[in-house]
């Protein structure tokens, strides 16, 4: 997993729970990297799992809820780090439609060792999109948060529902409908 995901995760923890919590969860997670990340480095996904577990224990929030909150945070971080990747989009549905064939393709060029999910589009209209998230990492609640924040980025809101096609969350169908005018 790319370092930018780790650095932004720890940034979110600092913003929402304070620097002491950052130190505490790094210590509790007992990480090979000692919690020292650079945004362009690549680290074992298990370190993210360990950090999420220790944050979950400390805050009594579920890992799923933490991932969802992190998705909201991460959309802004990725947009700030790589404005050129999202600036050509004029609508949230258009952006979501392009993750697989454009956005993450570009990301893979920026970070050749990035491990990205797959989004298969099932259906799209001007105000809705259905797609299947596929990833061995099962970060579908992160995807949920990213999708919602994408609408906020365009000053609109959405209703996002999802259905686990595989129990472990490695295949999840999303139905996304834009609210109001947009
Ligand atoms: C990773 C979804 C937009 C860059 C991921 C992951 C998800 C995801 C769920 C975690 C990996 C996994 O699940 O296997 C989405 C969604 C987006 C979006 C739903 C739009 C709403 C973007 C944009 C950028 C970006 C705009 C960059 C400008 C990345 C990077 C990673 C990533 C760098 C980390 C890869 C790694 O850890 O190796 N994306 N993404 N994504 N995405 Fe996206």
Describe the protein.
This protein is of the alpha+beta class and 182 residues long. The chain folds into two domains: 3-61; 88-178, H-NOX domain. It has helices at residues 3-17, 19-29, 45-59, 63-81, 83-86, 92-110, 140-153; strands at residues 118-124, 128-134, 158-164, 171-178. Strands 1-2-4-3 form a four-stranded antiparallel sheet, with helices on one face. The model has no long low-confidence stretch (mean pLDDT 96). The protein binds protoporphyrin IX containing FE (HEM). Protoporphyrin IX containing FE (HEM) binds at residues 1-2, 4-5, 78, 82, 85-86, 96, 99, 103-104, 107, 111, 114-117, 135, 137, 139, 142-143, 146-147, 150.
Q: Tell me the series of helices and strands, N- to C-terminal.
A: HHHHHHEEHEE
Strand content: 15-25%
Question: How many domain units?
Answer: 2
Gyration radius (Cα, Å) is 16 Å
- How would you describe the shape? globular
Helix content bin: 40-55%
Listed once per kind, the bound small molecules are: protoporphyrin IX containing FE
For the biggest β-sheet, the strand order reads 1-2-4-3
Task: Give me the count of strands.
Answer: 4
Mean pLDDT: 96
Distance between the termini: 34 Å
Write down the CATH topology of the largest domain. Answer: H-NOX domain
Name the CATH superfamily classification of the largest domain: H-NOX domain
Largest sheet: 4 strands, antiparallel
Summed up, the helix count is 7
Class derived from helix and strand content: alpha+beta
